[in-house]
């Protein structure tokens, strides 16, 4: 009986060894992909900036004194010529009266010296006095005339100082900040208001040094605002800084062609710059992770380098060579080898080969827990 069992076991073992192994179906690898569209074109670059008023002014009194009244508040809209604040006038009114009195005295003296000069000239014509007397009268006349000129200037200055006790708006706009209160002393030239003009706006951005050469004065841009959904305005480059600031970035100003009441100074803006590529130019941005790093870069010494990637077509990975010209952050600017509609494999590249069956990865989400 044991022999029969042993024989049966050996027979089954040999039979199993002679049979062909069971075929296990190959697993189709999932890969991340990027579909090439117009949105992946590298013909433009978007930079964040801050909205500012085109005309901004810090207002101050040209004379010092005690504040008599303040007629506007922070945030208030103003019109050109509107009275903003006033200093006490008494001191300056007295200065005007004093200057008028001095001018009257100087004119009286001038008339006196003028008459004296005429008398001396008449006497000299009859040879009743020496020439020295005429010269002396002439000098007195000249001095009196100069005193009149000085007195006129002093009066004009005193009147101007009196007018400067009233601070008027230089243009239409609004009050950004107010730094004075009634009955306080202010010094001449100290800022008491900050004003911004109404309507005209600009966006200030910092442009990387790698892109500054691509723009010029007058280049058109489009501007969007994260807090204003659906609002897009157009502008033009109005200033390009000649010196780099922090991060080797250059200051660039974009003047907006039109504004709305919702667009206010201090808001964040996204400015899209176009770099002059033709509308149909095939310049795309792709992530560096799409490169097959197992194969060395060709033409490494040239400005235009060829790199290998995989595209997904009909469920199969196909190797393709792309030509790129520059690296922008963690992306490549591809100038040849891609067309709209191509599906580029961007993750999992080191684990796939030419002709391998793959599928686009689709995220799965856990179903929410249900409490019974």
TrEMBL record:
UniProt keyword terms in alphabetical order: Coiled coil
CC annotations in GO: efflux pump complex
Sections of the chain in a coiled coil: 89-123
GO molecular function annotation: efflux transmembrane transporter activity
Domain CzcB-like barrel-sandwich hybrid, chain residue ranges per copy: 60-195
Location of the CusB-like beta-barrel domain: 203-274
InterPro entries, sorted: Beta-barrel_RND_2, BSH_CzcB-like, RND_pump_MFP
SUPFAM superfamilies reported in the protein's UniProt record: HlyD-like secretion proteins
Similarity remark: Belongs to the membrane fusion protein (MFP) (TC 8.A.1) family.
PANTHER family: EFFLUX RND TRANSPORTER PERIPLASMIC ADAPTOR SUBUNIT (PTHR30469:SF20), MULTIDRUG RESISTANCE PROTEIN MDTA (PTHR30469)
NCBIfam families attached to this UniProt entry: RND_mfp
Name by which UniProt lists this protein: RND family efflux transporter MFP subunit
Annotated source species: Alteromonas naphthalenivorans
């Amino acid at each position: 009986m044991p022999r029969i069992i042993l024989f049966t076991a050996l027979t089954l073992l040999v039979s199993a060894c002679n049979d062909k192994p069971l075929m296990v179906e190959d697993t189709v690898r999932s890969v991340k992909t990027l579909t090439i569209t117009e949105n992946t074109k590298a013909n433009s670059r978007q930079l964040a900036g801050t909205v500012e008023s085109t005309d901004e002014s810090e207002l101050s009194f040209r004379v010092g004194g005690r504040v008599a009244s303040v007629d506007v508040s922070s945030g208030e809209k103003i019109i050109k010529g509107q009275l903003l604040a006033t200093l006490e006038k008494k001191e300056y009114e007295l200065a005007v009266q004093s200057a008028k009195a001095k001018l009257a005295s100087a004119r009286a003296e001038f008339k006196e010296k003028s008459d004296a000069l005429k008398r001396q000239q008449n006497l000299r014509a009859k040879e009743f006095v020496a020439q020295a007397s005429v010269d002396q009268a002439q000098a007195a006349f000249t001095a009196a005339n100069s005193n009149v000129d000085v007195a006129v200037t002093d009066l004009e200055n005193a009147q101007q100082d009196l007018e400067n006790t009233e601070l008027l708006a230089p243009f239409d706009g609004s009050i950004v900040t107010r730094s004075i209160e009634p009955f306080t002393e202010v010094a001449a030239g100290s800022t008491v208001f900050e004003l911004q003009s109404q309507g005209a706006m600009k966006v200030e951005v910092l442009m990387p040094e790698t892109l500054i050469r691509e723009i010029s004065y007058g280049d058109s841009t489009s501007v969007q605002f994260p807090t204003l959904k659906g609002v897009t305005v157009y502008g033009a480059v109005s200033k390009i800084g000649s010196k780099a600031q922090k991060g080797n970035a250059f200051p660039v100003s974009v003047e907006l062609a039109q504004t709305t009441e919702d667009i206010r100074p201090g808001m964040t803006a996204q400015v899209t710059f176009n770099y002059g590529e033709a509308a149909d130019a095939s310049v795309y941005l792709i992530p560096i992770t799409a490169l097959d790093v197992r194969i060395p870069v060709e033409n490494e010494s040239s400005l235009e380098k060829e790199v290998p990637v995989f595209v997904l077509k009909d469920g199969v990975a196909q190797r393709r060579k792309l030509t790129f010209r520059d690296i922008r952050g963690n992306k490549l600017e591809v100038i040849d080898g891609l067309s709209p509609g191509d599906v580029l494999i961007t993750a999992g590249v080191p684990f796939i080969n030419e002709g391998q069956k793959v599928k686009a990865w689709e995220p799965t989400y856990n179903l929410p827990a249900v409490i019974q």
